[in-house]
User: What shape does this take?
Amino acid sequence: MLYLSVRLTQHFALLFICLTCSEANGDVGSVYFGPNHPMKPHRLCMTHHLVLSYELHKKMEIYRPHKAYPVELAQFHSADYVEFLHRITPDTQHLFSHELAKYNLGEDCPVFENLFEFCQIYAGGTIDAARRLNNQLCDIAINWAGGLHHAKKCEASGFCYINDLVLGILELLKYHARVLYIDIDVHHGDGVEEAFYFTDRVMTVSFHKFGDMFFPGTGDVKEIGEREGKFYAINVPLKDGIDDTSFTRLFKTIISKVVETYVPGAIVLQCGADSLARDRLGCFNLSIDAGNSSISAVDVKVSLVVVLFAGHAECVRFVKKFNLPLLVTGGGGYTKENVARCWTVETGVLLDTELPNEIPDNEYIKYFAPENSLRIPNGHIENLNSKSYLSTIKMQVLENLRCIQHAPSVQMQEVPPDFYIPDFDEDEQNPDERIDQHTQDKQIQRDDEYYEGENDNDHMEVG
Ligand SMILES: [Zn+2]
Assistant: This one.
């Protein structure tokens, strides 16, 4: 089962999408890509339980996202591709070898049980998150199940089938003249960049490993957008082993200048956790959230403690400070216990809540043994990014940004209406079953203490 949550507080609102795991119900956390496939959706269950064990759910409200309709997915994807994803099953795929090749389904992007429902749920979550931001029902929206940045208009790519980020950005563009997309996954955010390569209404900024035939092979600093979109795609190509200090410094310098120049109305942040040290597919050396306390004595009695943060979560902390409507998603991440650690720390960062390093008892505690600690240290791999290399990249990016004199003014057209979103899965369940599901959800919410009071709402109206 999947929930999506929003809590409005006095000055700050947050929306959160997460899930409880139930093999019987089939959700994004229990689908199975195959025995040797590195993508383990189970990492989402682990994240969820870790968030619960730190009681972060008490600071948010949780909503179940709607399953995106095929017509919503076709806002970006071609109708024939969406229709094929809907139709294909593991049992019938041998009859469609031509289509499988055409849509790039197979080894990296296998056809598995409940594939289409999996896409509908994670994409529905990101779309709902954007609609809630548009309607000012929250300031920050999180969908850790989303962030599948490689999917293309007419084909699957790199474990991604439907590009929920593009769909979320298209929603935000109904209300915002300019949307900024930031991607800190170790892989280039090629699907999102490609979707908006010719427009100045979306600026895409991707920090990623580039070279040595690393997937997907795009994302050179020279790729800057074309036509109306020229200078509105930014690529920061990096080499193996980039560390906290150099990554964080480069990120802050570039993102500050981008926000100052582009003046976005909303930000989408893809937090792929495969840029962490020790990722199964990654090659960077980032910690989750390294805090270095530097103590400076003001006089004999008083000392001033300054904590300097660096690492993956520091990027999230930095982006949050712009106080713009913010949609945060997951992405890659293939050492699953570290993915859960990272996204839990980042949920805490978004809630301004510091989390103790010792992981509280939870259903998945055995995965975090023996040290049971939330934060992970950096690895010991060599940083192949020399100071001069990083400086050259930085200068090139800043020079391109100077070509944008002002934030482009956009003639906003009439806002198209949101799709009507019925409660839960109206199209697939009969009314009796629907009530049962709803009752069951309420029961689960009570059991898990998702809500503290009678006044919390768990409705589904979106947009
Ligand atoms: Zn990735």
